Amino acid sequence: MADRGRDVRLLVAGIGLIGARHLRHALEMPEIDVVGCIDPALTQSEVPHFTTIADVDVEADGIVIATPSHLHAEHAEAAAARGWHMLIEKPVAHSVAAADRIVDAAARAGVQVLVGHHRRHHAHVSALKKMLDNGAVGAPVLASLIWAMKKPDAYFAQNWRAGADGSPVMINLVHEVDLLRFLFGDVVSVAGVGSNAQRGAARVESGAVVLGFEGGMAATIAFADTTPSPWGFEAGTGENPNIATTGEDYLRIAGTQGAVSFPSMTLWSGAADWSQAPDSKVQDVVRNVPLTAQLAHFVDVAAGRAAPLVDAVEGRRSLDVTLQIEAAVAPRMKASACA
Q1: How many distinct helices (H) and strands (E) make up the chain?
Q2: Pairing relation of β-strands 206-213 and 140-148?
């Protein structure tokens, strides 16, 4: 296993926005020995640098794959062939077929895959899940979520983000889908409408989605990457250093006995019907750093001490719903940008 008494010898592939954060956190964790990073565009690094996975000539136990999603299957197959456990950034892949390649490669090689839906490791999300499971709002009836951020123009300068792969559905809403699935179970229906009216690029940039869940509840997601609003998971929780913190709630959940808003964790309860005003109480939660918690979990996965919280099959399920959303909203884009 890892050198110098550490649990896992780790590689990080793809040193972009999220890959750089993984690398920084991993370097700070005593249980991880970062043995190299992989990125053809990288010119300098704190650790040994390799251009491709094939170039890696050091011993490793695991790898963080934070490369563009259309490369995930190729890179996962190469990593599996080397016997490395994998933490693959969300979405697990760019297509269901590619996700199946990852599932098959990991099974053949006998390695574990943890998909980087790091919100499941967020202390507030864990507390919300426990609150719902304990019946704090009764049976969930509906949820309403807004993710509305304005991405700077420079964000789309990278070629892979300039077209359809830069859609906020695949990059951002996949997080919302996985969060809602974690809270409420399987999605059985998807409907939506989308637009690219502001930037006019060949990708959806805003829209609204209705998800129907197996248990009978419904959730709406309103999304946009063209508005500097205060509403979004990252803005509300402050968990992403690249996004300004507002502290505003972006998710509201209503049940048969009350409601809760997130991330303030404000619980509304005590009203029998609309003639009574519910009482409100903020639930205290000790904050954590979800990417660090996810890496710590990956250490346990790679060391054989835990099963992945979000394995490749579960990541595939969230991807499938996200692709259904993309299909539902894309046909309603401005025709001139899609020609």
Answers
A1: 11, 14
A2: unpaired
Rounded CA-CA distance 117/95 in Å is: 17
Going 239 to 72 to 175 to 330, the CA torsion angle's sign is positive
Kindly list the strands in the beta sheet with 113-116, ordered across the sheet, starting from the edge strand earlier in the chain: 49-50, 32-38, 8-13, 62-65, 85-89, 113-116
Has this prediction a pTM greater than 0.85? yes
Tokens 């609309």 correspond to: 274
Contact 25, 294 (CB under 8 A): no
Q: How many CB atoms lie within 10 A of CB 124?
A: 22
Structure tokens that stand for 110 in this block: 């006998």
Classify 33 as helix, strand or coil: strand
Residue whose entry in the numeric block shows the structure tokens 């077209």: 163
Give the CA count within 13 Å in the CB-facing half-sphere of 213: 21
* Phi (first) and psi of residue 131, to 5 degrees: -60, -45
Q: 19-25 contacts: CB < 8 A, separation 24 or more?
A: 19/64, 19/66, 19/67, 19/89, 21/241, 21/291, 22/64, 22/66, 22/87, 22/291, 22/295, 23/47, 23/64, 25/289, 25/291, 25/292, 25/295
- Write the DSSP assignment of 256-296 as a string of letters: TTEEEEETTTEEEE--SSTTSPPEEEEPP-----HHHHHHH
**Would you write out the chain's pLDDT as a tens digit for each of its 339 residues?**
444 447 899 999 999 989 999 999 999 999 999 999 999 988 777 899 999 999 999 999 999 999 999 999 999 999 999 999 999 999 999 999 999 999 999 999 999 999 999 999 999 999 999 999 999 999 999 999 999 999 998 888 877 787 777 889 999 999 999 999 999 999 999 999 999 999 988 899 999 999 999 989 999 999 999 999 999 999 999 998 889 999 999 999 999 999 999 999 999 999 999 999 999 999 999 999 999 999 999 999 999 999 999 999 999 999 999 999 999 998 777 654 443
For residue 25, the one-letter residue type is H
